[in-house]
Design brief:
By secondary structure, the protein is of the alpha/beta class. It has 10 helices and 12 strands. It has a 10-stranded mixed β-sheet, with helices on one face. Strands 1-2 form a two-stranded parallel sheet. Helix 1 crosses helix 2.
């Protein structure tokens, strides 16, 4: 009987496997179990991109591995760099021909990678480029992890932080997101502390509870708030029509009360839409109930919308109103706007420069 032919599509993407699955893979090939840990070391600690770099494997063994598996699935297309050299945007091509975007933010001694979890986004926030085109598909855990590996390898510096704030809603691709976090935090993986990872969500209420439970509160949670008003938030974040703001706040209160975990609100300030004094007071009321931090983000323009960025005086006024109510506020430094790599500007299948 003939052996089944292994095609590129049927090969195992090793970066998608946790340690138990790597164990099963090496056993399938008739290899000793310790090879699984060696593979994990090469993939996640040394970030190699080819079996030929695995020097403690014999050449015949490397050939066997290459026949049955891939180390990577993404292909580098372009790396635009911001003028201040603090942001690099990585355009990476997937096996099915789409171009996804990831960002490296190098600030304050940190190397932070902003990863995408989907090709496009089903949430379709009005101010965000990621949901403006057709939705492609969910990324695999391996494709999420590989963004971190690729950027760490390209920079020749260890990645210190990972934020799930690129294209897509992480909790809408739950299993892959959680598996990627497992690989990023495991001692056999990247060994990142959970507090160095932030998952941002638009507010899928049932999945927030599940996420906090499954992650045991070890990973930072960031909520895209953008308005304290039900009607305005529904305009900006359409999923708010299904998972209402009051329901979201009740869920977050439960999480805060039971787990005592820090919650951060992301708030994109859009001139004339959600930057009023009334909005600031409403945000302060919500944040105070939850002991939450508020991260203000002046709107980053996208071509589909005629929204405007508030002037610095209005941004400062909003910030001071929050601080007057004893809310801890940070103002997001605009990073990468000149290369469309700032918050809300990542998109699927961008036309190349």
């Amino acid at each position: 009987m003939e052996n089944k032919k292994i095609t590129p599509a049927s090969k195992v993407h090793l970066r998608s496997l946790n340690l138990q699955e790597l164990d099963q893979f090496v056993q399938m090939l008739g290899l000793p179990q310790y090879r699984a840990l060696q593979l994990a070391d090469w993939l996640h600690k040394k970030c190699v991109m080819d079996f030929s770099e695995m020097t403690n494997f014999s050449k015949p063994l490397r050939m066997v591995l290459a026949e049955h598996a891939d180390t990577n699935r993404l292909e580098l297309v372009e790396v635009p760099e911001s003028k201040n050299h603090e942001s690099l945007k990585y355009l990476l091509k997937t096996p099915d021909g789409h171009i996804l975007e990831s960002v490296l933010i190098a600030q304050q001694g940190r190397q932070t990678v902003c990863v995408s979890t989907q090709l496009g986004c089903r949430i379709r926030c009005s101010f965000c480029a990621s949901g403006k085109g057709k939705f492609g598909r969910n990324l695999t855990a391996g494709e999420i992890v590989e963004q971190v590996s690729f950027i760490g390898r390209h920079q020749k510096k260890p990645v210190t932080n990972v934020v799930f704030m690129g294209m897509g809603e992480p909790l809408d691709n739950y299993e892959a997101t959680m598996k990627a976090i497992e690989i990023l935090t495991a001692d056999w993986g990247f060994e990142l502390g959970g507090r160095r990872i932030t998952v941002s969500t638009s507010g899928i209420t049932p999945m927030i509870e599940r996420f906090v439970s499954d992650s045991r509160g070890r990973v930072r949670l960031s909520i895209s708030l953008h308005s304290s008003n039900q009607e305005t938030r529904s305009q900006l974040v359409p999923i708010n029509k299904k998972y209402r703001l009051d329901e979201l706040i009740q869920t977050l209160e439960k999480i805060h009360r039971v787990l005592k975990r820090e919650i951060t609100f992301e708030y994109t300030l859009i001139a004339g839409i959600n930057d009023s004094s009334d909005e600031a007071r409403g945000v302060a009321r919500i944040a105070s109930r939850l002991g939450a931090k508020v991260n203000l983000i002046p709107y980053n323009p996208i071509r589909e919308m005629d929204y405007q960025t508030p002037n610095p005086k209005q941004v400062e006024s909003f910030r001071k109103l929050l601080e007057a109510k004893h809310v801890y506020v940070t103002l997001r430094q605009t990073a990468g706007r000149d290369i469309d790599a700032a918050c809300g500007q990542l998109r699927l299948d961008r036309e190349l420069l």
